[in-house]
């Protein structure tokens, strides 16, 4: 029993950066922009979050810095693909290469210019982002560790997912936003400010990715600078968007499932299932590819998939 | 957000498609973008406290200062060049093959099988078999998403992306299990290939560079002067048109992706047997992604691809010299590459479109649609 609880708790921790990345990418794809720059935006968020945390020793400021820096990098993407109508795939890939390069470059530079030669997060912020402990609740059997034992990041992520789900499905503005992803021409004709929505959604999505990056730097890597600290999670997040069927609430469960897949290899007894580690590492991609194929094989149109995904909108061509 | 009334006022500035610019002006605009990009990169270097001219100078001289340095630069250029040619085939067809990484890896895996288990074959037979195996491996890995795209319309961008990681984990499985070198204590890796199974050197670099140069010509001629190449560009322009003209779109799709994957697979074979002399998970070195940038920067033109690959190769090799002389990380190359592409992508807009300011009185009726010549 305790073994299972440990596994589930670890799965949530491993899935959290994916949750942020997925939510961010959903916001991009909802307005029709397939942003392959998630990995880059997360890297930039990781770098900004860690450096801000290191210098201010304040968790909130670190989060804000991660959000803003990644949103700024998303602005480059938005400027190029929304206003200048550049190819989305190429721009996104460039953002990834640029983002990883820039954050590594700055990270190493900061490491060498730091007084102690290490970039370890100071005491106070480490305490602020430690796993929460609510007296009484956290001590409950089963429910305690499963529900009340995580780093604040986990709760922030779930909160963002719920807010986004509410916004997208229950508010007029959210429905407008989804209309843009399906048919920007019709949305424009209906008086929806397509460009503004796109910018807002892409920037917001980028910022959310950045928080996921901060989690990678501050929690997964223990608050010290490590090169390539997002380590490909951004790409899994792109896959997860499909798994979650473009729904923020599904992203919560999906991230934790993928988190479980990432750590499964440490928990499955090798004597019973002698599968190679690589098989477990491959699982998220295998499953996503299967879902991708199966959904495309079904004749029924998938209404969650933004119909205009990947295509830029040029007003004069509608 | 209640804006149901129709807003017929014209925006202050609007975007209009341009008639085609003369080639000279296009080249000029792109050069301007490159210069702006280098200036922006210089600003970045200035911000971290170095003289941009010194850094740029060191990159250039570092990559070309000695025969040894040039050889190292060429070694970086080879995979970039070949892979860019490979993805160009798919991109011409507007098929978003983001899966070059995976195709390179599968090519390397297929070739490595012969390098590991048939190293005693006649050298040239072995090299030819490995090249063929590499092309088959990469080709099949490229064919898979094309088949699903052709039959079910499966999104190829996402599918090829997933295939990259499957290929990667196949290698990590191989080096962890079946192909693990029993001679390596504790550390999981695949044994170094026999000398018989590695590419020969010509002028100090494995002869992959000759293959790359030949491929430029082949791809150029194929795209420009053959019926199949023509079909690719028609399908890329519009599948409807292609169908109307009686082309078998499905066949073109499958054939082109097989070729695109095969070229990338050949690159994998060359990297494994020429550069690494073994198979590792790092066989691609991220080239599959960079190649997409190179291909796009080059407007899918094989000759321009050569130029851009050389430029990127110099940037990458030069950055390693910057690291040793100034202690700046080699990631500098990625940052500069990113900035260059951002600017060139931005400049494309001004090649294709022009901005029209709102006229004061006549409501901005568009006149002179042909653009300014």
Structure in words:
The complex is a heterodimer of chains A (318) and B (373). Chain A is mainly alpha-helical. Helix content of chain A is 71%, strand content 0%. Chain A has 13 helices and no strands. In chain A, helix 2 (38-56) crosses helix 10 (194-220) and helix 3 (59-83) packs antiparallel against helix 4. Chain B has a domain at 71-307. A two-stranded antiparallel ribbon of chain B has the order 1-4. Chain B has a two-stranded antiparallel ribbon with strand order 2-3. Chain B starts with 12 loop residues before the first strand and ends in a 16-residue tail after the last strand. Chain B contains 13 helices and four strands. In chain B, helix 4 packs across helix 10 (249-276).
Query: What's the end-to-end separation of chain A, in Å?
Result: 59 Å
CATH topology of chain A: ABC transporter involved in vitamin B12 uptake, BtuC
Percentage of residues in DSSP E strands of chain B: under 5%
Count every beta strand of chain B, where a strand is a DSSP E run of 2 or more residues. Answer: 4
What fraction, in percent, of the residue positions of chain A are helical? over 70%
Beta-strand percent range of chain A: under 5%
Radius of gyration of chain B, in Å, reads 24 Å
Largest sheet features of chain B: 2 strands, antiparallel
CATH architecture of chain A: Orthogonal Bundle
- Gyration radius of chain A, rounded: 20 Å
Concise synopsis of the structure shown:
With 318 residues, chain A is mostly helical.
Q: Which structural traits does this protein have?
A:
heterodimer; A: 318 residues; mainly alpha; ABC transporter involved in vitamin B12 uptake, BtuC; B: two-stranded antiparallel ribbon; 4 strands; globular; disordered C terminus
